[in-house]
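User: Thanks for the earlier help. One more: SusC/RagA family TonB-linked outer membrane protein. Can you show the sequence and predicted structure together?

Assistant: Of course, both are below.
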Amino acid sequence: MLHSQNSRTISGIVLDDATRLPLPGATILVQGTAKGASTDIDGKFNYTITSSKSVNEMVLTVSYLGFKTQRVTVGDRSYFEILLQEDAESLGEVVVTSSYGTKKIKQEVVGSVAKIKPSEIISEQPAVTFDDLLEGQIAGVFIDTNNRLGEETSINIRGQGSLTPLGQNIVGTSTQPLIIVDGIILSEELGIDGSNFFDAGTGNISENILNPLARVGIQDIESFNVLKDAAAVGLYGADAANGVIIITTKSGKQGKPSFSFGIQSGFSTAINEYKYLDGFQYQNILNQYNINNGNFESVTEWNGVNTDWFDLLNETGTFNRINFGVNGGSERWRYRANATYQINNEAQVNNDFKKLNTSFALDYNHNKLSASLRFSPSIAEKNDPNTLYNFAVAPNIPLFDDNGELTAIPTFGNPVAVANQNIRESKTLAFLTSLNLNYSILPNLKFTTLFGMDLSFKDEDRFFSGLNGSGQLNGDGFDRPLDQFQGQLGRRIQRERNTNRWNWSANLFYDTVFDKKHTFDALVGIETRRDFSDQSFAKGDDFINFATPQPISEAFEQDYEEDSIENTGRSLFSQLNYNYKKLYFLLVNARIDQSSAFGSDRNTALNAGIGASWNISSEEFFDPNGFSFVDFLRLRISYGSTGNSRIGSYRARGLYILGFNGYNGSPIYGNPSSAPNPNLGWERNNKFNLGVDFNIFGKYKMTVDYFRDNIQDIITSRDVISESGFTSAQINGASMINQGVEFSIQADWINTDTFKWNTSFNISRITNEITSLSGLGSEFSAAERARSRQVGFSNSTIWGFQFVGIDPATGRELYNVGGDIYDASYVRQNFTNNDWEPLGDSQPEFFGGLRNSISYKGFDLNVILSFTAGQETLLDRDVLDNYNILVNRNLGVNIWQQAWQEQGDIAIYPAISRTTPIVSNSSKYVFDESHIKLKSINLSYNLDTKALKLPLKNLSVFANASNIGYWFFNEGSNFGNSIAELRSIYPEMMTISFGLNTNF
């Protein structure tokens, strides 16, 4: 018989020390033995302890994933209020599942969600946007980085979510994921169908499209969550077809003010430099070209000049970044402020990218009310007048003429003069702002409302100086007097893009536990949003003062245009989660969306998803069956549909071009430019996912997912009858499938107090197939784009003619068309794009990456690699063998040894002649781009500040090398340029930097 003093009922509540909110599901143990399964959903516990010894001596242990375990001696108390503090090492197990305030521990997440923190991918890399750090680091996410700093990067989550436009002036449906920062839906810089002035491109007058993530400071990011399947993204039905990225920025921490400071500096050099013909080689090739053309009077000896334009326009660049922040707070208030200034001076002379990211975070929590304010102003400035990569002029032209002036070069201009006399700059001032309020109506019922705004003002200025060939244009001078006419001198282009995107949502969240077995939570809410972009364009040609930028109003020829894009939408969303005994989990979400982008009869869409998971390793039968080496095993499955309303301009309504009278600015006519289609509706993505998560031997955590996305009602362009007054219309006229497998593993090889070693690896395989095409069926792009849409083939297939070699007798290209061999001239005259064959695929068959981290006694070494396999690229023939540009431009050095010269030559490139027919879309220009990239090596050392008697909390110094080099699977010829140089005429940069980080 036990004595009564050895039996006592105790109760209490488990709270988060940061927010003072109840923590549901905390595990309660007494002296290492579980006495209660868990707390109730509101964090309360209540049960009786009975012991053969004094209850006063017993220890109550409380643990919760993501927090430090607390141990409290029971003593003579009967009620406990236990505050748990965040555990930085285990916070990675807590996953943000939506921007509406929902979180789950990793083992309870039903959907396919990948989470990564900046510390895992080395934030010391000199990237200007966070997505550049993610290349190859998340399974199923293919990131095609841009060597031109700050410009748009392609992010494809589980394949491209819509068709690539075939026309030059069609913007197309967005294929990028929905990006949400602290509840703010980021805007995209979209063009307008039919406009040459606002679309992105590579020409000198195309718009510089800014990466929206440039508005987010890398040092401000706390976590980066990628939502992939319907169970994860269905809550965002309207625009979640391409996946959702949720970024959470850092908050302040309770306590006295704590300051952080970091500084980093380094240098950048060009890698994989493209090799051009030198002066001697160029003159000999040019002479051969003129001889073969019968232009003998132009054959001259080499003048001895060998100008290395690349060397003149590339030098050692610099990289500098400085960061300062402060955070702190009381029990109710927490604050954080941070500023980061970064300058990337490129290896290309006069090209740079500068940005200032600031962030202010304020959090309040007291009783039933909590609130958070985020305000992040930023300034980004890009300058890149150095355009040698587009204008590689002849090397036998000297830098200076006989008078010591920069040599005048018609049409393109002296590249050094262009880099120093022209202006090509873009400035963006942006503000990201969100206000989030939470009120606990009842212990298990919470109301949340959020308002977010992405506001940006972008100005672009392009000036082509009349002092060099780029600003010396042909023309009639308009009304300029004949005695002043020297051709048009000077050109200036100015653009403005002002964007205002806001979103507001309100929701109710309810959670409860009944019978200690059933856990239930539900979310229901509403959302409204508006995205408005006002764009203007002004161009002036021919200035009297043409050496420096002048107001466009002073140009002899002027052109002004303006336009705008506006989309509004509203939604009703809901989500339900249920689990039984932490074994079986069920998720259901549904969303009704309306968008102004579509016709009035098609502007509403219902999207929904359902998912389930089974924690097999928690079953009672699991261990007895001999699976003791398995620490965790879970099976997940989901299915649902999402939509895509990001279709650019008002396609359902039709587009018109307004003409102006030029006097009072009033429009006098409107010409239709795009046919209206009131039946135009949402693109729909039906997503299926089957996943397995398992941990084995206490060291390895693995995830395998199979997915299949069936994308229907894809918006595409189709020709219409001429009597309609239009040439084409947008319709829901295609469907395709993305499917594949993702695998990721995290291995903790060694984990001791002094030595840690862990590795993360992922690999994905994704295939795409067009399954239907309505209307005219298969379509082909213009000749230079090598794209086609055909049922049964990938949307990313490269099309063209199969090159079989150079005829040794004639020096002309030979092609295999339909099993027969033809001369290039015959191919050009008798075959069209209808005779194209698939030549390759720009989407890799496999891609992924590896991270390796080693820590030893204060030293940390991190190595990051990425890779792609089975990826082809189509090169511009101008960089290889377009001989017709030889009269004023240089070519790659490959033709020096590999071009046909005389009968019997076994060559790669044809005879050097103007009359040599060249087939642009040729397998000769398709190269295997498969590679392994050594992306970053980072070595840091944490100094012992106490031993050094420094008044600092911590201090670390580091060295970082980024974008170090490539190993290509198929290097090609040992002579000249291989795929390493050919894949990117704009020089890539390797950056080596050093720095320190401290807190005090």
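User: Great, one quick takeaway?

Assistant: The two ends are 59 Å apart (CA to CA).
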